[in-house]
Amino acid sequence: MKYVAAIDVGGTSIKAALVSSELTIIDTAAAPTPKNDSTGAHTAEIIATLIHAFEEKKPVSAIGLAVPGALDELAGTSRWSGNLGWKNVPIRDLVSKRTGKPVAFGHDVRTGMVAEMRNGAAKGFANSIFIPIGTGIAAALVIDSAIRSADGFAGEIGHVNVGHNRLCVCGKNGCLEAISSANSIGENYRDISGKSATSEEIFNLAKSGDVVALKVWEEAIYYLAIACEQLITILSPEAIIFGGGVSIVGNELIDPLTHLLKQRLTFQRMPELLIAHYGAQAGTIGCAMLALDAAESQ
Q1: What's the whole-number mean pLDDT along residues 211-217?
Q2: Which letter does DSSP use for residue 15 in this model?
Q3: Nearest to 76 by CA among 109, 100, 40
Q4: Which domains does the chain have, with CATH numbers?
Q5: Could you tell me which residues are beta bridge partners of residue 175?
Q6: What phi, psi does 150 have (nearest 5°)?
Q7: CA-to-CA distance for 219 and 201, rounded, in angstroms?
Q8: What stretches of 145-266 show up as alpha helix (H) in DSSP?
Q9: Widest CA span of the chain, in angstroms?
Q10: Which residues have CB under 8 Å from 234's CB, separation 6+?
């Protein structure tokens, strides 16, 4: 039995899991993502600490590391990540040198799609899209049965202009991520109501009749539908799979999106709208799969 560490560096937290070769999660851990870590050194230090804690239980053969943003996956570099404040950070080598482990490196969303393609909701589709909705929003694109990344630049659906006037972390107004991500749902609710709440809490408030929560939630779904319409028109996927924290509401996300898209689409193929098989753990399982591949190749 081999064991690997799956590390998902998000804009809010670094999530870690110790995973067996049977894809059983043995242990989990998390730490806040450091702020103002422009070199990535502090992030690598935290990851090394998490790995060390895992190794007190099981030997770690390899690490699967996923980060958001525009990547050079072959070089192991984060070209740009607005939510992390990174630009040209060689994060794979930093983590490898700090831990002494082989590191399989990938985009957080595309690693999630690895899991969904191999054994999840995207299995069996030649053309599909995976959209986790968390701190940010991006998409993994499967075209003709292969994940396409265009040298790491493809899939940044969170930064398409969907027509509102809110400012995004990328510096532009109108981005999908600035109104439909979990972070933005919380921020937009706080800006109007003066109260802090998570996206899940805002969903529950909306269901109970909170007018502000309902407005913020419905706006998030409406603009997500606009972005999906653009993807459908250009790529014609057979399925769109939703993951991340916002997807935990299940059909409460799928049903209004289906209704809006049926209103908006004319000649385009209507895809199946699905919730990720691995839910918010898709990235973790995908990281583990890539790490196990790396361990086998050693």
Answers
A1: 96
A2: E
A3: 40
A4: 3-107+281-297 (3.30.420.40), 121-276 (3.30.420.40)
A5: 161
A6: 50, 55
A7: 16
A8: 177-180, 182-193, 199-207, 211-235, 251-264
A9: 57
A10: none
3-state secondary structure 209-227: CCHHHHHHHHHHHHHHHHH
Q: Per the structure block, which two tokens stand in for 62?
A: 């390899």
Would you say the pTM of this structure is higher than 0.85?
Answer: yes
* Token output for 254: 């799928």
Q: What confidence category does residue 82 fall into, taking pLDDT thresholds of 50, 70 and 90?
A: confident
How far is 228 from 207, CA to CA, in rounded Å?
A: 24
H/E element holding 62?
strand 62-67
Model confidence pLDDT, tens digit, residues 129-182: 999 998 889 999 999 999 999 988 899 999 999 999 999 988 999 999 999 999
Distance of CA 233 to the CA centre of its chain: 22
Q: What are phi and psi of 87, to 5 degrees?
A: -145, 115
- Geometric angle at alpha carbon 163, from 249 and 140, rounded to 5°: 50
What is residue 166's DSSP assignment? P
> Distance (Å, rounded) from C-alpha 160 to C-alpha 71?
18
* Helix, strand, coil distribution of the chain in percent, nearest 5: 45, 25, 35
C-alpha–C-alpha distance, residues 54 and 277, integer Å: 26
CA 93 to CA 69: how far, in whole Å?
17
Outline where the chain has alpha helix (H): 41-55, 91-99, 108-119, 177-180, 182-193, 199-207, 211-235, 251-264, 282-297
The amino acid at residue 180 is S
**297 pLDDT above the threshold of 90:** no
Tokens standing for 210? Answer: 């909170």
Q: What angle do CA 275, 173, 273 make, to 5 degrees?
A: 15
Closest by CA position to 149, among listed 113, 181, 116: 113
Report residue 82 as tokens: 């607005």
Yes or no: say if 200 and 185 are a contact pair by the CB < 8 Å rule.
no
Whether the pLDDT of residue 298 is over 80: the answer is no
Structure tokens at 125: 């589709």
